[in-house]
Specification:
Glutathione S-transferase Yfyf (Class Pi), Chain A, domain 2; Glutaredoxin; 300 residues; alpha+beta; 2 domains
């Protein structure tokens, strides 16, 4: 994804993503301002990538809330030595995401990530933390719809469990450099999937009968699980389709109006199986699985 130091992009990234014990450690987002008060959707722009699960969260919230007036730029699926790059970026004329950061943040130091929420009026980056963007879009344009006082405690509890053990847990498994780090991460991945399976056997969505922010933050991991994480990241104890309730729940969200258009299974398959010296040195892309996400889910 690339690294910037004092506003300058570094092609040779000196910062390791693993600890001394071989565990993958994700860098923290640092640009975390709120959406300006009174801003309309048309004032905002999203920089995203189809294969990035964190960007997928923002795209999902935009789709579910019908915020089509928030324009989007999509980076190409595979990064280069310039990080995330664009084939055509009309908003700023940028060819790479690091140029967006150089323009929209003063002397930025950190990872060059997506999603980025951009303010057209000021020409600045508002936020590059997906969790903030999801919450901010809901609060600004559909207050109480995806997160309200009645379910905020349950949403927080699920978010606090799912992010470290599942959303990021699959990466901790896939990028582990020691057997111990992998074993710990993959055990947590499946313990959390088991817990979610039990929950959605009782309720349609994580926090009750209505789709919430917690479901939006979970779904990108489920969409990529069988087609990418199961094989590329060795999260292969079970598949998503081996969980009857969880698999039906995932199809239920997928079939929500607007959601399917945010999902690109072939992009995930190719992206996660791209050439990697450690994980896939030959760059061979598997042909499957071909799960039927349009099958009736029976959870209406």
């Amino acid at each position: 994804m690339g690294l910037m130091l004092d506003g300058k992009y570094l092609i040779d990234d000196p910062a390791p993503d693993t600890s001394a014990s071989g565990q993958f450690e994700r860098a923290r987002s640092t640009l975390r301002d709120p959406i300006p008060k009174g801003a309309t959707p048309s004032r905002l722009h999203l920089f995203a990538a189809w294969n990035c699960p964190w960007a997928h969260r923002a795209l999902l919230m935009r789709a579910v809330l019908g915020l089509d007036d928030i324009s989007v730029s999509y980076a190409l699926p595979r990064r280069t030595d310039q990080g995330w790059v664009f084939e055509d970026e009309p908003l700023l004329g940028a060819t790479a995401m690091h140029q967006v950061y150089a323009t929209g943040a003063d002397a930025y130091t950190g990872r060059v990530t997506v999603p980025v929420l951009w303010d057209r009026e000021t020409g600045r980056i508002i936020n590059n933390e997906s969790a903030d963007i999801v919450r901010a879009l809901g609060d600004a344009f559909a207050p109480g719809h995806m997160c309200n006082p009645d379910n905020v405690e349950a949403i927080t509890r699920w978010n606090d469990l799912i992010y470290p053990t599942l959303n990021n847990g699959v990466y901790r498994a896939g990028f582990a450099r020691t057997q111990g780090a992998y074993d710990k991460a993959v055990a947590e991945v499946f313990a959390t999937l088991d817990q979610i399976e039990n929950q959605v056997a009782r309720t349609r969505y994580l926090t009750g009968p209505a789709l919430s922010e917690a479901d939006i933050r979970l779904f990108p991991t489920l969409a990529r699980f069988d087609v990418a994480y199961h094989s590329a990241f060795k999260c292969n104890l079970r598949r998503l389709i081996d969980y009857p309730n969880l698999w039906a729940y995932a199809r239920d969200i997928y079939q929500t109006p607007g959601v399917a258009e945010t999902v690109k299974f072939d992009v995930y398959r190719k992206g996660y199986h791209s050439p990697s010296e450690l994980r896939n040195p030959l760059g061979i892309v598997p042909v499957g699985p071909q799960n039927d996400w349009s099958a009736p889910h029976g959870r209406g």
